[in-house]
Design a protein that fits this description.
392 residues; Rossmann fold; Helicase, Ruva Protein, domain 3; Zinc Finger, Delta Prime, domain 3; 20 helices
């Protein structure tokens, strides 16, 4: 009876599941955009075909297939699958999974894949505690992260994991997924009745989701729910999503990537590009003080004596951030961004400074010449005082 209820629950869950979950690839052949890893000649797929399941970490932006690949790894290798998220799970949960995996291995010889999502959320002590579990061979650890693993994962743990980097999906990959989800009569939008989606609507979805497949399917489903006549137009897409996606994480890789692109755009005298990155950082929630400090550094380091007023304006922008905050301080940041980008550049002051710093470090400190000190003045004053005393 329990099996009957569980089977019915599975069917019900599939009926109620979001489109992105229903359309999750059921084989490597259905995965789009990751041929380098799981295509016919992909290195991960070839390793699995040879019977080898390495401990691994899957790295990539949201919606690129990390969870799907982890599940398919377990399926292809005929291993049990346990899933945890480092956001809410702790070491007690991991130990429980490892104990169950040990019992399973002893009972029927079946190994277990532990999929640990957001593995970078584990702190150093928690990551260190994973080491003996990985080395014991009872489980195969498959971690997933959107962060740079060489920064967010301990070196000791990372050295025991094979790193597979997933790419953001390209336009053609996303179009394939969207059309498949629209036309599929088993799991897609056409499972009840045919659904039609205009090309302009598909383009509008692509503009809003970056390379995120899950985001694209979620937006498609939201727009379809607004299409009473089962015909999705660009109007429904606009209604379902008021704004384009800004893929930004002020504490992660996007923070560093955008800051780098922002500085390099100003350095290349491309004000429009610099303003675009400025807007994306501010829209994504970046601390405006971080941007203001970068502007002051840029004005002193890159613009330098070629346009000394840049440093004055950058300092004023920093004061505006302190006094006004967002959103008003954005005006000052935008003004100085354009000014610095358009200004001529000179690193003469920086080169001079670094040169003399290197000379001091190499040659040691030198005393100031006597004629540049105030010692002569003090000596003359003492002599004059003595003469005055002698003449009464």
């Amino acid at each position: 009876m329990a099996d009957l209820f569980e089977s019915a629950a599975d069917v019900r869950r599939e009926q109620l599941a979001p489109l992105a979950d229903r359309m999750r690839p059921r084989s490597f052949d259905e995965i789009e955009g990751q041929a380098r890893l799981v295509g016919d000649t992909g290195r991960l797929r070839r390793q699995l075909q040879q019977g080898h399941v390495p401990n691994m970490v899957l790295v990539g932006p949201p919606g690129t297939g990390k969870t799907t690949i982890a599940r398919l790894v377990a399926r292809e290798a005929d291993m049990a699958l346990e899933e945890l998220s480092a956001v809410g799970a702790g070491l007690a949960d991991v130990r429980r999974v490892v104990d169950e995996a040990r019992q399973r291995l002893g009972a029927n010889g079946r190994q277990t894949v532990l999929f640990l999502d957001e593995i970078h959320r584990f702190n150093k002590a928690q990551q260190d505690a994973l080491l003996p579990m990985v080395e014991a061979g009872v489980i195969r650890l498959v971690g997933a992260t959107t962060e740079n693993p060489y920064v967010s994962i301990n070196r000791a743990l990372l050295s025991r994991l094979v790193t597979y980097e997933l790419d953001g999906l390209h336009r053609d990959d996303l179009l394939t997924l969207l059309r498949r989800a629209t036309e599929d009569t088993e799991r897609g939008l056409s499972r009840m009745a045919p659904m039609e989606v205009d090309d302009a609507a598909l383009e509008a979805i692509l503009e809003r989701v970056g390379g995120d497949a899950r985001g694209a399917l979620t937006l498609l489903e939201a727009a379809a729910l607004l299409a009473a006549d089962r015909h999705v137009t660009v109007e429904q897409v606009h209604e379902a999503s008021d704004r384009r996606k800004v893929d930004y994480d002020r504490a992660g890789d996007q923070h560093y990537d955008h800051a780098s692109a922002y500085i390099k755009s100003m350095r290349a005298s491309q004000p429009d590009d610099a303003l675009r990155y400025l807007a994306q950082m501010l829209t994504g929630g970046e601390d405006p003080m971080f941007i203001a400090r970068r502007l002051v550094i840029f004005a002193a380091e890159d613009v330098g004596p070629a346009k000394p007023m840049a440093l004055v304006l950058a300092t004023a922008a920093l004061q505006s951030v302190q006094a006004l905050g967002m959103p008003e301080c954005g005006y000052a940041l935008a003004q100085v961004t354009r000014y610095c980008a358009e200004a001529p550049k000179s690193r003469q002051a920086v080169d001079d400074y670094l040169g003399v710093m290197a000379a001091v470090a190499e040659g040691g400190q030198q005393d100031a010449p006597l004629h540049l000190t105030n010692r002569h003045g003090a000596k003359d004053a003492r002599a004059a005082l003595q003469r005055a005393k002698e003449h009464g």
